[in-house]
Write a structure and sequence with these properties.
Layout lengths: L31 H12 L6 E7 L5 E9 L9 H10 L4 E8 L8 H17 L3 E8 L5 E3 H4 L6 H23 L3 H17 L4 H12 L1
Parallel strand pairs: 3-4
Antiparallel strand pairs: 1-2, 1-3, 4-5
Helix pairs in contact: 5-6, 5-7
């Protein structure tokens, strides 16, 4: 009697981009700054919070844009997976996020900052970095860059690297104090190489590391 067979179904993903109503400009939309200008004019007219993403190519030229979420007058949910869905399908190299504040405020709220951090982290993991998150004020169309007001949200990799270096230096100092050994020098050298591969280390931090290792 043949044994019962169990199946694991295979599925095919056939998601595709579909064209929607475009935005127009009297000038060529050749860079992300020009895209922000065009998007800001459109978002300023919205009576609810709109969250949009502009997909950029390798030269940061706009490919297209996608409306990720539409909320109410003072908030909008931003599902992180939806931020990158169109970017993946468009073969984007990076993305630029924008959302409107119908109230006219240019100040980022705490949720705005939190979701920015999540987008930056997600973008790093999947290899599609978030270049900026722009807030557009309702009615006026004025806009501000969260990258400019809160640059630390976009440099968490460097911060993590600095923590890694500091911790490695502390471990090294403790090891040498307990038992000087040439093997320890090799071990800390390996840790140093890992840190340098994981993130960009600014020269000042690198010097601190070298100084700590020499002690």
């Amino acid at each position: 009697m043949p044994k019962e067979q169990y199946e694991l179904k295979q599925v095919q993903v056939r998601l595709r981009l579909a064209e929607a109503e475009p935005l127009y400009s009297s000038e060529p939309i050749t860079d992300s700054d020009k895209a922000v200008e065009v998007m800001a004019k459109a978002l300023a007219e919205m009576d609810r919070e709109y969250v949009c993403v502009v997909n950029l190519d390798t030269r940061k030229h706009p490919i297209n844009f996608n409306i990720v979420s539409i909320g109410d007058i003072d908030q909008a949910q931003i599902p992180i997976q939806n931020v990158f869905k169109a970017a993946i399908l468009a073969n984007a190299k990076s993305v630029l996020a924008l959302h409107s504040h119908p109230s006219g405020s240019l100040d980022p709220s705490r949720p705005d900052l939190e979701v920015t951090k999540r987008m930056v982290e997600a973008g790093r993991l999947i290899g599609i970095p978030v270049t900026d998150h722009i807030i557009v004020a309702g009615a006026t169309g004025l806009h501000t860059s969260i990258r400019s007001t809160n640059p630390e949200l976009f440099s968490f990799v460097a911060e993590r690297s600095k923590d890694f270096i500091a911790e490695t230096a502390r471990e090294y100092a403790m090891d040498v104090a307990e038992k000087p050994d040439t093997k320890l020098h090799k071990r800390v050298s390996v840790k140093k190489q890992i840190a340098e591969k994981q993130a960009v280390i600014v020269p000042a931090d690198k010097k601190k590391y070298e100084k700590a290792v020499e002690r």
